[in-house]
Amino acid sequence: MTQVKTRILLDPEETPKHFINIVPYLRRKLDPPLNPLTDEPMPPEALEAIFARECVKQEASTEKRIRIPEEVREGLMHFSRPTPLQRAIRLEKYLKTPARIYFKREDVSPTGSHKLNTALTQAYYAQQQGVERLATETGAGQWGSAVALSCSYLGLEAMVYMVRISYDQKKYRGALMRSYGGEVVPSPSTRTEFGRKILTENPDHPGTLGIAISEALEDTMKSDRTKYTLGSVLNHVLLHQTVIGQETIEQLNMVEETPDEVIGCVGGGSNFAGLSYPMLASDDFTNTKFIAAEPSACPTLTEGRYCYDFGDTAGMTPKLKMYSLGASFTPPKIHAGGLRYHGVAPTISMLYEDKKIEAKAYGQIDVLNAGITFAKTEGIIPAPESAHAIKTAIDSALDAKENGREKVIVFGLSGHGHFDMLAYEALMQGELENT
Ligand SMILES: Cc1ncc(COP(=O)(O)O)c(C=O)c1O
What we know:
Layout: E1 7-8, E2 18-20, H1 53-59, E3 65-67, H2 70-78, E4 85-87, H3 89-95, E5 100-105, H4 116-128, E6 133-138, H5 142-154, E7 157-163, H6 164-169, H7 171-179, E8 183-187, H8 193-201, H9 209-221, E9 226-228, H10 235-240, H11 243-254, E10 261-265, H12 270-280, E11 289-295, H13 300-303, E12 305-310, E13 319-324, H14 346-353, E14 358-362, H15 364-378, H16 384-402, E15 408-413, H17 421-428
Parallel strand pairs: 5-15, 6-7, 6-9, 7-8, 10-11, 10-15, 11-14
Antiparallel strand pairs: 1-4, 2-3, 4-5, 12-13
Helix pairs in contact: 2-4, 3-15, 4-5, 5-7, 11-12, 15-16
Bound molecules: pyridoxal-5'-phosphate (PLP).
């Protein structure tokens, strides 16, 4: 009997040497960011006040491939790259599906998600230009953990504004960031003028990513030794995640598979882009469907508007052309904190508008039940964010069963849920609504 290959592994030296830039592969030119005060197109250099210079350069780049600095590659290898591609053989058996399901394991990073890929890269570029401190926001805490570890790896200070609802739900995320030497406060906080204003209006505000971004930006603008770092949405952030998809292509080649469907959860869009952009930039995947999974509590693609909007709540960021639910939208307190964001990356928004990718939205109970099914069959408790991709993959595999047709499904396991057990506990106690 031939044994099914369930773990498809690459050697550390096979870690990609370049990032793949989707921008030159788009059918249309991206709409430029607009100055928040004048609504005039903004020159990229204007962003250098807040971002590392190299990140700003990459933000506007139209190069197809951008070399990964060797020091960054070494760091990525040190922190688990390349990650395994795994076949969900027990999930397939449980579902009795003819579909073959593969998942890309970003949960094996020491901080628990894909976020380290760009945190390390951005921190490196900042350190190279003499920056001493990074300020950022975090939703679920995965991004803040990745920034805190990257800063400790490169000898920088980290300041993290963590959305208050997640800060309370995931106490140990704060402890992890502090263990790496980072400083973490719940947002809205009393540290910034904007945080104090929100707290005066509503002392019990649960926080949003939009508010936390405003706080981190205000912090950055008041300190000349600090740069801001963002965990999603912008072109350069999505670019850094393309190591995921490049590895996945190699690994699928090793088992001679071409995916019918590639699925990823979408908050700002970075893990979905990381997995799918190298395939969207290639002619080998023209028959593949790309599906973005989002919460019905924050249905940015499925119910948002394609328009110019701010990336934060205070209106400090440039306006971006993107799908948005409105910069002041406060999503319900779902446990997938990393998906509680009103907007979606401009490149993903354009691909969605042009019908190159699809989107599906799911309620929290359905998503977390899919997470439990995955834990029972594959042994990995997924981040609630990643469970959106699992729910989509399970539905698709059941559809294949109903239609008696084989298909190959690849989904991104963007992170583990070891710090999210309150969510699963609340589900099992029947305390959640299917928002
Ligand atoms: C595990 C995990 N997956 C997905 C996301 C969503 O972000 P993005 O859409 O940028 O991948 C987050 C954000 O915090 C996350 O922590």
